[in-house]
Design brief:
The protein is built from seven helices and 36 strands. The structure holds copper (II) ion.
């Protein structure tokens, strides 16, 4: 009953004491997977009012949620290249999130948080659990205030609504992007609580006509603290030796595929809690082809997605990764990569064609275990949703255009055909406060080789790397720790060109990539080599690269890069408006 209320609460008035806006309501385990509400641009403009709130459930779960003006949670923002986004963000966070009744008795907490605010949200030094801002993950928009700056932009409770306003670049690839808070030191708490939403740049059927006319489904997989942290594993599971705790205080990798996970998962907010993982429910018409757009909005959990029918892995057709169609290199036609599983790191996206099961055949969406290393979290095998064939299954609300006009060819040569002007090496590393105590506090670093490892300092302002707009560079990212890290850089995409020193042929782009962990037996540190694309004028500015496991990012595993304008004027000395968009003619992306 609760689940059905959640599905329709944007259209009915709720008289219950727990108003949806106060409590960040969530569906019950086992509920049908609801679709996020779509907010679409009209006449080239999408205007959205979002409020971020937090709430502690009676089960102790700490929730953070975005509501639009109609009360919809985490709406999907849909825009086309060239469209203008105007997003007003209101911060209603409190530092004593409690249930609605208790909150009424604790006005002083909110007051205390308000008192901290002192200045311009564009130049705020306040970064606290009740501060917030937005990062538009994957978009090549300028890293300036009111657009995609996360270094200084910080909105406090009590501030008036803060306006984000920018144009989607004309050349932005069509695909799945997302929005989430990026307050240094507090990203994990807010994202783990559910503060995230999908963003779709329309037109993927223009890039690959194999998806034209398909019904599309947006699936946001989030993680959250365990609802039943003290429960023993299900009896059906093989026993695992014992539960250890990793460097971050999460359930450590058992290396078996079983045992207590570090975090619970949810799919479009339907929780799938440990230990029994009651799956959420997806219905499809028998053998219907659909286009699934899956976002791993987890704070720390790796996914390894598979679709099983009668327990047998099925092929699904990957069309895009990290918001970019995999045929964007211009040479592979309507290429689709058919796989029976796909790893998705925190922050990553995968978009694929799936064919529904025949009538009477039970289907499952699962994540297979991910070996995160001896220092990593436990990401065991678990169910996410059942897939049931039903002739009367409701159609997804959205369908891709059936007669699309093909996208124009890209303005720039394919990244894989551009020679890098230089090679840099960076490395992930960790140190223990007490080297003799594996459970002592860990410090996290992301260091440019040759520099001294240091924890990211948001007040420093001194870039670790300076590059020139127009250039293409190769970055080798090494992992000198015993757990996985997910490398992400703002404002641009890159191409994987080598894995552990061996050239590989992956002619497509990503913005987040897994970097394999180090084992004692390795002769060299594991690494990825990435071709980094600084050609777009929108990359001019100062922004960050970091591990997308948010407890690592919050702990300092982040670095600062300055992209200087091609005319050699240091970007820091240039004033807004922004340097324009990816393709000529440039739109002016005004800030206010
Ligand atoms: Cu990490």
């Amino acid at each position: 009953m609760f689940a059905s209320l959640w599905l329709v609460h944007g259209h009915v008035s709720l008289c219950a004491q727990e108003s949806p806006n106060a409590s960040c309501p969530r569906p019950s385990p086992g509920a049908a997977v609801p679709e996020p509400v779509d907010l679409r641009s009209h006449n080239g403009i999408l205007k959205v009012d979002l409020t971020v709130r937090n709430f502690t459930g009676t089960d102790g779960t700490k929730r953070f949620c975005y509501f639009d003006a109609a009360g919809n949670q985490s709406p999907t923002l849909r825009l086309s290249p060239g469209d203008l986004l105007i997003l007003n963000l209101k911060n209603d966070l409190t530092d004593a999130p409690a249930n609605a009744a208790a909150a009424n008795n604790t006005p002083n907490h909110k007051h205390a948080a308000v008192a901290e605010k002192n200045s311009d949200p564009c130049d705020s030094a306040t970064m606290s659990l009740t501060s917030t801002n937005l990062h538009f993950h994957g978009l090549t928009v300028p890293a300036v205030c009111h657009q995609d700056d996360v270094l200084k932009t910080s909105i406090q409770p009590g501030d008036p609504p803060f306006q984000y306003k920018f144009r989607i670049p004309e050349g932005e690839p069509p695909g799945l992007y997302w929005y989430h808070p990026h307050i240094h030191g507090f990203s994990k708490a807010q994202v783990l609580g559910g503060a995230s939403g999908a963003m779709i740049i329309e037109g993927i059927e223009r890039a690959n006509k194999e998806v034209a006319g398909l019904p599309e489904r947006v699936l946001v997989i989030r993680d959250q603290d365990l609802v039943n942290p003290n429960a023993p594993p299900a009896k059906s599971e093989p026993g695992v030796p014992k539960f250890l705790v990793d460097h971050d205080g999460d359930a450590a990798n058992t290396g078996t595929g079983f045992g207590k996970p570090a975090k619970d998962l949810s799919i479009n907010f339907v929780p799938v809690p440990y230990p029994d993982y009651p799956p959420a429910a997806i219905q499809m018409k028998p053998q219907e082809r659909q286009f699934w757009r899956v976002l791993n909005a987890s704070a720390i959990t790796y996914l390894n997605l598979a679709v099983l029918y009668k327990r047998a892995p099925q092929q699904f057709g990957i069309v895009a990764l990290d918001g970019v169609p995999i045929n964007s290199n211009g040479t592979t036609g309507d290429f689709i990569s058919w796989q029976n599983h796909i790893g998705v790191p925190p922050g990553g996206r995968v978009e694929f064609i799936v064919t529904g099961p025949p009538a009477g055949v039970p289907g499952l969406l699962v994540t297979r275990t991910v070996d995160t290393g001896v220092g990593g979290e436990n990401d065991p095998n678990r169910m996410i949703a059942t897939i049931t064939a039903a002739a009367d299954a409701p159609e997804p609300k959205s369908k891709l255009a059936s007669s699309p006009v093909p996208l124009p060819p890209p303005a720039e040569p394919w990244l894989g055909n551009v020679a890098p002007v230089c090679v840099r090496k960076l490395y992930f590393s960790e140190t223990l406060l007490d080297p003799n105590d594996p459970n002592s506090a860990t410090t996290f670093y992301l260091t440019v080789e040759g520099q001294e490892p240091k924890v990211f300092d948001p007040s420093s302002g001194v870039p670790d790397i300076v590059v020139k707009q127009g250039d293409v560079e190769d970055w080798i990212i090494e992992n000198r720790s015993t757990e996985l890290h997910a490398f992400h850089i703002h404002q641009l995409h890159f191409m994987l060109v080598a894995w552990d020193g061996v050239a590989i042929n992956e002619p497509f782009l990503r913005d987040t990539i897994n970097v394999p962990f180090h084992s004692a037996a390795d002769l060299q540190y594991p690494s990825v080599r990435l071709r980094m694309d600084f050609r777009d004028p929108n990359t001019v500015g100062t922004f960050v690269y970091h591990c997308h496991l948010l407890e690592h990012e919050d702990g300092g595993m982040m670095g600062l890069i300055r992209v200087e304008a091609a005319d050699s004027t240091p970007a820091s000395e240039k004033s807004t408006p922004s340097p324009g968009t990816r393709s000529a003619p440039a739109h002016s992306t005004t800030s206010n």
